[in-house]
Amino acid sequence: MIYPQRIEPIVDFSKLSDAERHRSQMMGRKGKPDASNVMRVMIKFAHAASINEGLDVRQDHHVLTMRLFQFICQRTLWLYDCEYLWSRHRLSAQKDGINDEDLLAVAQGPANTRLKGLDRIFANAADEFYYDHRLSDETWAAMRAYHPEAVADAAGTYGVYVLMAAFANSVGAQLEADVPGYRPELLGPRETPQRPRTLTTPPAGGYPVRLQPVRPADYNQAQITALKPLKGDKIVETKLMRSFAHFPSFVSTIASFILRQKDCLLPQRLVHVGGLRTAWLYGCENLWAQEREACRALGLSDADIREVAIGSSSAKLEAADQLMVTAVDEMHTGGWLTDATWVGVLKYGEEAPLDVIGVHALYVYMSTLANTLGVQLEDGATGFTAEERALRA
Known about the structure:
Elements: H1 18-26, H2 37-42, H3 52-61, H4 66-79, H5 83-95, H6 100-108, H7 117-132, H8 137-146, H9 150-171, H10 187-191, H11 221-227, H12 239-244, H13 248-261, H14 268-281, H15 285-297, H16 302-310, H17 319-334, H18 339-346, H19 352-373, H20 386-392
Helix pairs in contact: 3-13, 4-5, 4-7, 4-9, 9-19, 11-13, 13-19, 14-15, 14-17, 14-19, 17-18
Protein backbone atom coordinates (compact mmCIF):
# COMPACT_ATOMS: atom_id res chain seq x y z
CA MET A 1 0.00 0.00 0.00
CA ILE A 2 0.95 3.66 -0.28
CA TYR A 3 1.05 5.17 3.19
CA PRO A 4 -0.03 8.73 4.09
CA GLN A 5 2.69 11.29 3.42
CA ARG A 6 4.41 12.52 6.56
CA ILE A 7 7.39 14.29 5.00
CA GLU A 8 7.56 15.96 1.60
CA PRO A 9 10.65 15.43 -0.56
CA ILE A 10 13.06 18.29 -1.10
CA VAL A 11 12.24 20.23 -4.27
CA ASP A 12 14.46 23.33 -4.17
CA PHE A 13 18.07 22.18 -3.83
CA SER A 14 19.27 25.80 -3.69
CA LYS A 15 17.88 25.99 -0.15
CA LEU A 16 19.64 22.97 1.34
CA SER A 17 21.28 23.44 4.72
CA ASP A 18 25.00 22.72 4.95
CA ALA A 19 24.26 19.31 6.46
CA GLU A 20 21.70 18.50 3.76
CA ARG A 21 24.10 19.59 1.04
CA HIS A 22 26.77 17.32 2.46
CA ARG A 23 24.33 14.41 2.60
CA SER A 24 23.22 15.11 -0.96
CA GLN A 25 26.84 14.95 -2.13
CA MET A 26 27.52 11.78 -0.16
CA MET A 27 24.51 10.12 -1.78
CA GLY A 28 25.91 10.65 -5.27
CA ARG A 29 23.36 10.07 -8.02
CA LYS A 30 20.73 9.29 -5.37
CA GLY A 31 21.06 12.78 -3.92
CA LYS A 32 20.43 14.79 -7.07
CA PRO A 33 17.36 16.96 -7.83
CA ASP A 34 16.06 14.26 -10.21
CA ALA A 35 16.38 11.50 -7.60
CA SER A 36 13.40 9.52 -6.38
CA ASN A 37 10.94 10.96 -3.87
CA VAL A 38 12.18 8.70 -1.07
CA MET A 39 15.80 9.72 -1.57
CA ARG A 40 14.87 13.40 -1.62
CA VAL A 41 13.17 12.79 1.72
CA MET A 42 16.22 11.00 3.08
CA ILE A 43 18.38 14.07 2.47
CA LYS A 44 16.36 15.73 5.25
CA PHE A 45 17.79 13.08 7.60
CA ALA A 46 21.21 14.51 6.95
CA HIS A 47 23.00 13.00 9.94
CA ALA A 48 21.06 9.79 10.53
CA ALA A 49 21.39 8.85 6.85
CA SER A 50 25.11 8.24 7.43
CA ILE A 51 24.05 4.62 8.00
CA ASN A 52 23.57 4.41 4.24
CA GLU A 53 27.14 5.25 3.30
CA GLY A 54 28.34 1.65 3.38
CA LEU A 55 25.10 0.42 1.84
CA ASP A 56 25.38 2.62 -1.21
CA VAL A 57 28.91 1.45 -1.93
CA ARG A 58 28.06 -2.24 -1.57
CA GLN A 59 24.86 -2.02 -3.57
CA ASP A 60 26.93 -0.78 -6.49
CA HIS A 61 29.56 -3.52 -6.13
CA HIS A 62 27.83 -6.66 -4.85
CA VAL A 63 28.64 -10.04 -6.39
CA LEU A 64 25.06 -10.80 -7.44
CA THR A 65 23.85 -10.30 -10.96
CA MET A 66 21.31 -7.50 -11.08
CA ARG A 67 18.68 -10.09 -11.94
CA LEU A 68 19.35 -12.12 -8.76
CA PHE A 69 19.58 -8.93 -6.72
CA GLN A 70 16.16 -7.88 -8.01
CA PHE A 71 14.54 -11.18 -7.05
CA ILE A 72 15.56 -11.02 -3.38
CA CYS A 73 14.93 -7.25 -3.28
CA GLN A 74 11.43 -7.50 -4.74
CA ARG A 75 10.40 -10.41 -2.55
CA THR A 76 11.55 -8.51 0.55
CA LEU A 77 9.58 -5.44 -0.52
CA TRP A 78 6.52 -7.60 -1.14
CA LEU A 79 6.74 -9.21 2.29
CA TYR A 80 6.82 -5.73 3.86
CA ASP A 81 4.12 -4.39 1.51
CA CYS A 82 6.21 -1.47 0.29
CA GLU A 83 4.28 -0.57 -2.84
CA TYR A 84 6.38 2.52 -3.44
CA LEU A 85 9.72 0.72 -3.73
CA TRP A 86 8.22 -2.40 -5.35
CA SER A 87 6.82 -0.20 -8.11
CA ARG A 88 10.07 1.69 -8.66
CA HIS A 89 12.07 -1.54 -8.74
CA ARG A 90 9.60 -3.08 -11.18
CA LEU A 91 10.81 -0.60 -13.78
CA SER A 92 14.48 -1.34 -13.16
CA ALA A 93 13.79 -5.10 -12.98
CA GLN A 94 12.39 -4.95 -16.50
CA LYS A 95 15.79 -3.74 -17.69
CA ASP A 96 17.29 -6.86 -16.10
CA GLY A 97 15.04 -9.23 -18.02
CA ILE A 98 12.40 -9.70 -15.32
CA ASN A 99 8.88 -9.37 -16.70
CA ASP A 100 5.53 -8.93 -14.98
CA GLU A 101 4.85 -12.69 -15.05
CA ASP A 102 8.10 -13.20 -13.10
CA LEU A 103 7.06 -10.52 -10.61
CA LEU A 104 3.65 -12.13 -10.19
CA ALA A 105 5.51 -15.32 -9.27
CA VAL A 106 7.58 -13.34 -6.76
CA ALA A 107 4.35 -12.04 -5.21
CA GLN A 108 2.92 -15.57 -5.07
CA GLY A 109 5.92 -16.68 -3.04
CA PRO A 110 7.64 -20.07 -2.79
CA ALA A 111 4.46 -21.89 -3.91
CA ASN A 112 4.82 -20.51 -7.45
CA THR A 113 5.93 -22.90 -10.17
CA ARG A 114 7.40 -20.33 -12.55
CA LEU A 115 10.74 -19.41 -10.99
CA LYS A 116 13.55 -21.90 -11.49
CA GLY A 117 17.19 -22.33 -10.56
CA LEU A 118 18.97 -19.38 -9.03
CA ASP A 119 15.98 -17.10 -9.66
CA ARG A 120 14.01 -19.29 -7.27
CA ILE A 121 16.87 -19.66 -4.79
CA PHE A 122 17.31 -15.91 -4.38
CA ALA A 123 13.61 -15.05 -4.30
CA ASN A 124 12.98 -17.75 -1.69
CA ALA A 125 15.96 -16.57 0.36
CA ALA A 126 13.93 -13.53 1.40
CA ASP A 127 11.27 -15.86 2.83
CA GLU A 128 13.89 -17.86 4.70
CA PHE A 129 15.25 -14.69 6.29
CA TYR A 130 11.76 -13.34 6.99
CA TYR A 131 10.19 -16.50 8.44
CA ASP A 132 13.11 -18.75 9.49
CA HIS A 133 15.73 -16.04 10.09
CA ARG A 134 18.51 -18.04 8.43
CA LEU A 135 19.26 -19.67 5.10
CA SER A 136 18.45 -23.35 4.63
CA ASP A 137 21.11 -25.90 3.77
CA GLU A 138 19.91 -26.00 0.16
CA THR A 139 20.06 -22.23 -0.23
CA TRP A 140 23.41 -22.01 1.55
CA ALA A 141 24.95 -24.61 -0.76
CA ALA A 142 23.52 -23.06 -3.93
CA MET A 143 24.70 -19.57 -3.02
CA ARG A 144 28.16 -20.74 -2.01
CA ALA A 145 28.47 -22.58 -5.31
CA TYR A 146 27.43 -19.43 -7.15
CA HIS A 147 29.94 -17.18 -5.31
CA PRO A 148 31.66 -17.37 -1.88
CA GLU A 149 30.30 -13.91 -0.92
CA ALA A 150 26.76 -14.39 -2.24
CA VAL A 151 25.39 -15.40 1.18
CA ALA A 152 26.51 -12.13 2.76
CA ASP A 153 25.21 -10.07 -0.15
CA ALA A 154 21.86 -11.87 0.06
CA ALA A 155 21.64 -11.07 3.79
CA GLY A 156 22.76 -7.53 3.02
CA THR A 157 20.13 -7.04 0.33
CA TYR A 158 17.42 -8.31 2.66
CA GLY A 159 18.64 -6.00 5.45
CA VAL A 160 18.85 -2.96 3.17
CA TYR A 161 15.28 -3.38 2.03
CA VAL A 162 13.97 -4.06 5.52
CA LEU A 163 15.38 -0.62 6.29
CA MET A 164 14.23 1.05 3.09
CA ALA A 165 10.73 -0.45 3.26
CA ALA A 166 10.28 0.77 6.84
CA PHE A 167 11.61 4.20 5.87
CA ALA A 168 9.57 4.61 2.68
CA ASN A 169 6.39 3.37 4.37
CA SER A 170 6.93 5.46 7.51
CA VAL A 171 7.68 8.77 5.75
CA GLY A 172 4.84 8.07 3.31
CA ALA A 173 6.84 8.24 0.08
CA GLN A 174 4.40 8.94 -2.75
CA LEU A 175 4.63 7.38 -6.20
CA GLU A 176 6.14 9.57 -8.90
CA ALA A 177 3.79 10.53 -11.73
CA ASP A 178 5.49 8.15 -14.18
CA VAL A 179 5.61 5.16 -11.78
CA PRO A 180 2.42 3.05 -11.62
CA GLY A 181 1.65 1.22 -8.37
CA TYR A 182 0.67 -2.42 -7.93
CA ARG A 183 -0.68 -3.87 -11.17
CA PRO A 184 -4.22 -5.37 -11.12
CA GLU A 185 -3.00 -8.98 -11.18
CA LEU A 186 -1.14 -8.35 -7.91
CA LEU A 187 -4.24 -7.42 -5.95
CA GLY A 188 -5.25 -11.05 -5.38
CA PRO A 189 -1.87 -12.11 -3.94
CA ARG A 190 -1.73 -8.85 -1.97
CA GLU A 191 -5.08 -9.53 -0.32
CA THR A 192 -4.19 -13.15 0.46
CA PRO A 193 -3.03 -13.32 4.09
CA GLN A 194 0.63 -14.20 4.54
CA ARG A 195 1.42 -17.03 6.89
CA PRO A 196 2.12 -15.64 10.35
CA ARG A 197 5.66 -15.08 11.53
CA THR A 198 6.46 -17.25 14.52
CA LEU A 199 9.35 -17.24 16.94
CA THR A 200 12.14 -19.62 16.01
CA THR A 201 14.56 -20.93 18.61
CA PRO A 202 18.02 -22.31 17.87
CA PRO A 203 18.48 -25.98 18.75
CA ALA A 204 20.32 -26.77 21.98
CA GLY A 205 23.95 -25.94 21.31
CA GLY A 206 23.06 -23.45 18.59
CA TYR A 207 22.76 -23.71 14.83
CA PRO A 208 25.41 -25.82 13.08
CA VAL A 209 28.64 -23.91 12.48
CA ARG A 210 29.10 -23.36 8.76
CA LEU A 211 32.17 -21.12 8.95
CA GLN A 212 34.52 -20.88 11.92
CA PRO A 213 35.51 -17.40 13.18
CA VAL A 214 38.69 -16.08 11.59
CA ARG A 215 41.67 -15.82 13.93
CA PRO A 216 42.99 -12.24 14.04
CA ALA A 217 46.48 -13.56 13.32
CA ASP A 218 45.13 -14.90 10.02
CA TYR A 219 43.42 -11.70 8.83
CA ASN A 220 44.26 -10.71 5.28
CA GLN A 221 44.55 -7.09 4.15
CA ALA A 222 40.91 -6.85 3.06
CA GLN A 223 39.76 -8.03 6.49
CA ILE A 224 42.11 -5.65 8.31
CA THR A 225 40.86 -2.73 6.20
CA ALA A 226 37.19 -3.62 6.73
CA LEU A 227 37.57 -3.84 10.51
CA LYS A 228 39.71 -0.70 10.86
CA PRO A 229 36.78 1.75 11.35
CA LEU A 230 35.71 -0.34 14.37
CA LYS A 231 39.17 -0.43 15.95
CA GLY A 232 38.92 -0.04 19.71
CA ASP A 233 35.38 -1.38 19.90
CA LYS A 234 35.12 -4.67 21.75
CA ILE A 235 32.81 -6.03 19.07
CA VAL A 236 35.89 -6.51 16.85
CA GLU A 237 37.12 -9.27 19.15
CA THR A 238 33.87 -11.25 19.23
CA LYS A 239 33.14 -14.52 17.46
CA LEU A 240 30.35 -12.64 15.74
CA MET A 241 32.57 -10.11 14.00
CA ARG A 242 35.37 -12.60 13.43
CA SER A 243 32.83 -14.80 11.65
CA PHE A 244 31.62 -11.85 9.61
CA ALA A 245 35.27 -11.24 8.67
CA HIS A 246 34.91 -14.00 6.06
CA PHE A 247 32.99 -11.30 4.18
CA PRO A 248 35.03 -8.06 4.39
CA SER A 249 32.58 -6.15 2.19
CA PHE A 250 29.75 -7.05 4.55
CA VAL A 251 31.79 -5.76 7.50
CA SER A 252 32.48 -2.49 5.67
CA THR A 253 28.76 -2.16 4.98
CA ILE A 254 27.61 -2.54 8.57
CA ALA A 255 30.45 -0.48 10.07
CA SER A 256 28.57 2.76 9.36
CA PHE A 257 25.51 1.27 11.09
CA ILE A 258 27.50 0.32 14.17
CA LEU A 259 29.21 3.71 14.40
CA ARG A 260 25.95 5.63 13.93
CA GLN A 261 24.17 3.79 16.73
CA LYS A 262 26.87 4.96 19.14
CA ASP A 263 26.36 8.57 18.13
CA CYS A 264 22.66 8.74 17.29
CA LEU A 265 19.84 10.79 18.76
CA LEU A 266 18.52 7.93 20.86
CA PRO A 267 19.71 7.24 24.41
CA GLN A 268 22.03 4.22 24.40
CA ARG A 269 19.55 2.38 26.58
CA LEU A 270 16.98 2.55 23.77
CA VAL A 271 19.53 1.56 21.13
CA HIS A 272 20.27 -1.64 23.04
CA VAL A 273 16.63 -2.28 23.93
CA GLY A 274 15.91 -2.12 20.19
CA GLY A 275 18.81 -4.47 19.49
CA LEU A 276 17.65 -6.84 22.20
CA ARG A 277 14.09 -6.95 20.88
CA THR A 278 15.23 -7.50 17.29
CA ALA A 279 17.61 -10.29 18.34
CA TRP A 280 14.69 -11.90 20.21
CA LEU A 281 12.36 -11.72 17.22
CA TYR A 282 15.03 -13.16 14.91
CA GLY A 283 16.00 -15.88 17.39
CA CYS A 284 19.67 -14.87 17.37
CA GLU A 285 21.06 -16.32 20.58
CA ASN A 286 24.52 -14.81 20.16
CA LEU A 287 23.18 -11.26 19.83
CA TRP A 288 20.50 -11.79 22.48
CA ALA A 289 23.19 -12.77 24.99
CA GLN A 290 25.39 -9.79 24.08
CA GLU A 291 22.53 -7.30 24.16
CA ARG A 292 21.15 -8.68 27.41
CA GLU A 293 24.47 -7.89 29.10
CA ALA A 294 24.58 -4.44 27.47
CA CYS A 295 21.06 -3.72 28.72
CA ARG A 296 21.95 -4.84 32.23
CA ALA A 297 24.90 -2.45 32.20
CA LEU A 298 22.52 0.34 31.18
CA GLY A 299 20.16 -0.23 34.08
CA LEU A 300 17.66 -2.86 32.93
CA SER A 301 16.83 -5.54 35.46
CA ASP A 302 16.27 -9.18 34.59
CA ALA A 303 12.54 -8.48 35.03
CA ASP A 304 12.81 -5.61 32.50
CA ILE A 305 14.60 -7.88 30.03
CA ARG A 306 11.85 -10.47 30.39
CA GLU A 307 9.31 -7.78 29.48
CA VAL A 308 11.34 -6.88 26.38
CA ALA A 309 11.03 -10.54 25.39
CA ILE A 310 7.27 -10.40 25.95
CA GLY A 311 7.20 -7.40 23.61
CA SER A 312 4.88 -4.48 22.98
CA SER A 313 1.99 -6.26 24.69
CA SER A 314 3.83 -5.91 28.01
CA ALA A 315 2.21 -3.51 30.47
CA LYS A 316 5.29 -3.37 32.70
CA LEU A 317 7.93 -1.73 30.53
CA GLU A 318 9.04 1.82 31.26
CA ALA A 319 7.53 4.31 28.82
CA ALA A 320 10.67 4.89 26.72
CA ASP A 321 11.51 1.18 26.60
CA GLN A 322 7.91 0.44 25.64
CA LEU A 323 8.15 2.96 22.78
CA MET A 324 11.29 1.33 21.39
CA VAL A 325 9.95 -2.21 21.69
CA THR A 326 6.71 -1.14 20.04
CA ALA A 327 8.63 0.51 17.19
CA VAL A 328 10.58 -2.70 16.56
CA ASP A 329 7.43 -4.81 16.69
CA GLU A 330 5.66 -2.51 14.24
CA MET A 331 8.52 -2.69 11.76
CA HIS A 332 8.75 -6.45 12.19
CA THR A 333 5.06 -7.17 11.67
CA GLY A 334 3.83 -4.24 9.58
CA GLY A 335 6.87 -2.68 7.95
CA TRP A 336 6.28 0.84 9.26
CA LEU A 337 5.97 3.08 12.32
CA THR A 338 2.38 3.92 13.23
CA ASP A 339 1.25 7.48 13.98
CA ALA A 340 1.53 7.18 17.77
CA THR A 341 4.99 5.63 17.59
CA TRP A 342 6.20 8.15 15.01
CA VAL A 343 5.11 11.05 17.24
CA GLY A 344 6.67 9.41 20.29
CA VAL A 345 10.01 8.93 18.56
CA LEU A 346 10.10 12.54 17.33
CA LYS A 347 10.63 13.78 20.88
CA TYR A 348 14.23 12.61 20.49
CA GLY A 349 14.72 14.79 17.41
CA GLU A 350 13.52 15.22 13.82
CA GLU A 351 15.93 12.58 12.57
CA ALA A 352 15.21 10.08 15.34
CA PRO A 353 12.77 7.97 13.27
CA LEU A 354 15.58 6.97 10.92
CA ASP A 355 17.79 6.17 13.91
CA VAL A 356 15.08 3.85 15.23
CA ILE A 357 14.69 2.21 11.82
CA GLY A 358 18.48 1.94 11.54
CA VAL A 359 18.85 0.17 14.88
CA HIS A 360 16.30 -2.43 13.85
CA ALA A 361 17.90 -2.89 10.42
CA LEU A 362 21.39 -3.30 11.90
CA TYR A 363 20.27 -6.13 14.15
CA VAL A 364 18.30 -7.72 11.31
CA TYR A 365 21.51 -7.63 9.26
CA MET A 366 23.59 -9.19 12.00
CA SER A 367 21.00 -11.71 13.22
CA THR A 368 20.27 -13.22 9.81
CA LEU A 369 23.94 -13.69 8.96
CA ALA A 370 24.88 -14.88 12.46
CA ASN A 371 22.13 -17.51 12.38
CA THR A 372 23.08 -18.54 8.85
CA LEU A 373 26.76 -18.93 9.73
CA GLY A 374 25.99 -20.71 12.99
CA VAL A 375 27.94 -18.22 15.14
CA GLN A 376 28.33 -19.72 18.60
CA LEU A 377 27.98 -17.93 21.92
CA GLU A 378 30.87 -15.78 23.05
CA ASP A 379 33.08 -17.34 25.68
CA GLY A 380 31.37 -17.17 29.07
CA ALA A 381 28.07 -15.90 27.64
CA THR A 382 24.69 -17.35 28.57
CA GLY A 383 22.27 -17.94 25.73
CA PHE A 384 18.51 -18.31 26.00
CA THR A 385 17.72 -19.42 29.54
CA ALA A 386 15.18 -22.16 30.21
CA GLU A 387 12.62 -19.47 31.07
CA GLU A 388 13.38 -17.56 27.86
CA ARG A 389 13.08 -20.72 25.77
CA ALA A 390 9.74 -21.36 27.42
CA LEU A 391 8.58 -17.87 26.40
CA ARG A 392 9.47 -18.72 22.79
CA ALA A 393 7.61 -22.03 22.77
